[in-house]
Design brief:
Radius of gyration: 11 Å
Strand content: 15-25%
Order of helices and strands: EHEHEEH
CATH superfamily: Glutaredoxin
Strand order of the largest sheet: 2-1-3-4
CATH topology: Glutaredoxin
Structural class: alpha+beta
Largest sheet: 4 strands, mixed
Distance between the termini: 12 Å
CATH architecture: 3-Layer(aba) Sandwich
Number of domains: 1
Length: 77
């Protein structure tokens, strides 16, 4: 599983990454967490408001910081 945090590295992006790491740890799933900071790539994926969360290439949330519980729900689906 590949989890991507799309954003420029702002504090909101950092919090989303931290929450994603916590969710992965709590679920005990094998996942790679990657930061995508290239504005061109982010916009090509249809994200105009960061941070965004993508799981296996599919954008699941845009413009908000999901908490670990919300991320776990996305990972289970």
């Amino acid at each position: 599983m590949k989890i991507e945090i799309l954003g420029t590295g702002c504090s909101k992006c950092q919090r989303l990454e931290k929450n994603a790491r916590k969710a992965v740890e709590e679920l005990g799933v094998d996942a790679e967490i990657v930061k995508v900071e290239d504005i061109s790539e982010i916009s090509e994926r249809g994200v105009m408001t960061t941070p965004a969360l993508a799981i296996d290439g599919e954008v699941k949330a845009k413009g908000k910081i999901l908490n670990p519980e919300q991320i776990k729900e996305q990972l289970k689906n």
